[in-house]
Amino acid sequence: MLMDIGAKIRDARVKSGLTQEQAAEALSVSRQTISNWENGKTYPDIVSVVRMSDLYDISLDRLLKEERPMSDYLDYLEESTNTVKNRNRLSRLILLAVYLMIWTMSLLAFWFFTDGDDAMGYSILYLWVVLPAATFWISLLIGSGNHWGKYKWLFALGFGVMYMLAEYATFSTANMITFNKFNLPEFGMTAAGAVISLIGMGIGYAVHCADLKRKKRG
């Protein structure tokens, strides 16, 4: 059963004119891994199958299609796909959790660790350094991992709103309490946060696209 997919992988590589070393470098694996796949000793995962399809210029249908049953391998691919999806979900959750933790800490620091004399220092440290830096780097990682696909760009607006809320929940709220009045949010902060996020996400996505092209050229 393993020899079926292994032979197809080997034939596709040979027809594309690539050596095992060249294929291994393009796929970011070892030459021994390529050999194990082609000799039927191990299975390639779903990500590697997709990359081989692009590298060898062969459709996934032709690469996987076989007259005899391949239920074992297809079950393995399904399991691999679920593993990749779970890892992506975990990565996304970690990115959002880290940002929310930094955002929450910025609010707690203002209300519990500063007084009137520390307000300017807080503004410089959190609103103009920590939060913008966190927004930029989290957005960069979202772009470089292409998390959420085309919908990732919507997160720029979310980051902008969170940036605006950080200011509103600290300085503006303290001002309203002190002078017993109501202030509208500084909506310009939303635009600033969104721009910072878009810059980070754009750079990250450019790196992602460049990496895909490099691997495809091999």
UniProtKB/TrEMBL annotation:
Q: Which SUPFAM superfamilies match?
A: lambda repressor-like DNA-binding domains
Give yes or no: UniProt keyword Ribosomal protein. Answer: no
Classification via CDD domains: HTH_XRE (cd00093)
Q: Which residues form the HTH cro/C1-type domain?
A: 9-63
Give the source's domain of life in one word.
Answer: Bacteria
> Entry's Pfam families?
HTH_3
Query: MF terms per GO, please?
Result: DNA binding
User: What are the record keywords, sorted?
Assistant: DNA-binding, Membrane, Transmembrane, Transmembrane helix
- Which parts pass through the membrane? 93-113, 119-141, 153-171, 191-210
Q: What InterPro entries would the database entry show?
A: Cro/C1-type_HTH (IPR001387), Lambda_DNA-bd_dom_sf (IPR010982)
Q: What is this protein called?
A: Helix-turn-helix domain-containing protein
Q: What is the lineage of its organism?
A: Bacteria, Bacillati, Bacillota, Clostridia, Lachnospirales
